[in-house]
Amino acid sequence: MTNKIRPNQKFRQLRWLVPGLFVKRWLALMVFGVVLIGLGIGYILVDIYRNADLPNFFYYLTLQFLDRIVRAVMFGALGIGAAVYGFYRLNRTLVESVKPSNQNVIDNLWEKRIASQGPKVVAIGGGHGLSALLRGLKHHTSNITAIVTVADDGGSSGRLRRELGVLPPGDFRMCIAALADEESLVTQLMQYRFGGDSGLAGHAFGNLFIASMAELTGSFEKALLESSKVVASQGKILPSTLADVTLCAELKIESAQISPTLAANGLDVKANARGESSIGKAGFPIERVWLDPDNAPAYPDAIRAILDADLVVMGPGSLFTSVMPNVLVRGIQQAITQTRATVAYVCNVATEKGETDGFTLDDHLEHLERHIGRGAVDVVVANDHPYASAPEGVEIVAPVLSQKNEHIRLIRADVVSDENPLIHDSIKLGNAVIGLVKTEA
């Protein structure tokens, strides 16, 4: 159940008068205009009544046998009643005819206006973790900027990247869907994935749509903007860079896995992996990651969003392949260290095979700060929901920090899904993260 702010359901039509909807000012202007028209007509009628030779029945038609104050009250009451009823019928006739059948216009307007006054939140990452966070945040604020990795080279996104030369659209598609009305048929269409054995097999419709829009508009960033408009997506979705970058990793391979001779001599062997999709599959511990080229310029709007934010959130998501590719862009990295906003890291619920095997909460922070600088993170959000067990090869990340990270504030919260306790629940996570803004304020 979402924690949406709604006025009292018993007075639905009176919601138009709720402060912050920008309705009363135009309603007042309309009433003022009607009053002026009535005043003008009244002057004309008075002049006609006083100077024209009218039949006697006009005396009774204009209620001259009643006191003026009585006539004023009667006509005023009739006028107000007619105006209110006319406004009510106009609302039903015009507004109801253009809205979707499953959506109440005033509820939607209320939520959008309230959300537009919310804090400025920048979410950095990619994959399902970022979309889960965005899905929860949109109920609290529409001032959301998602900064998304462009290093994806697997699946449908990788194919489109290689064949069409566009930035990988997959993570952007999921963010657009997360910030839109999830019940919308158009949103579901964006997430639809083709099956079968045809050339479209494995492609998501939204990926093809964004790639087509990029060719039509001439730029990937315009394609994101227009695609967001199609599903009425809230907030902004920006790439961390427009450069064609490849994520690389240095892997630490145990000598015994190569030869007994190396193992006997206690030698360490290191190798490099190229491409986001190949790093996790390598199955070896990751020492460090970097981008090739390493001087890719940050997208300017992404930098501005970070510097202007009230809260910057990194994660949840794959540490090395979703979060890191963004903060490795130098302009993004510098903006994170320079912003006055609270910088938070949302740690994954559990370790990830082939990427963060055996990692503690301290290990996640150590690798993150090794790449962006110690002291960049102000707050860590970690799950404290109790577990009975975890799948083989997966460890639950305990919400505990050592003394070396005592400069970082730790927020423990139940942020996991009731159906699958190994992934984040959007609403719980959104509540926990937006609470950081209120706490810091």
Would you mind describing this structure in some detail?
The chain is of the alpha/beta class. The chain has 3 domains: about 10-105, no CATH class; about 115-245 and about 290-440, Rossmann fold (3-Layer(aba) Sandwich); about 245-290, no CATH class. The chain is about 45% helix and about 10% strand. It is built from 17 helices and 10 strands. Strands 3-2-1-7-8-9-10 form a 7-stranded parallel beta sheet, with helices on both faces. Residues about 1-10 have low confidence and may be disordered.
CATH-level-4 superfamily name of the largest domain: CofD-like domains
Low-confidence stretches: 1-10
Give the SSE order as H and E letters. Answer: HHHHEHEHHHHHEEHEHEHEHHEHEEH
Please identify, by name, the CATH architecture of the largest domain. 3-Layer(aba) Sandwich
Percent of residues in beta strands: 5-15%
Strand pairing plus helix content: what structural class?
Answer: alpha/beta
Order of strands in the sheet with the most strands? 3-2-1-7-8-9-10
Arithmetic mean pLDDT: 84
> What's the number of domains?
3
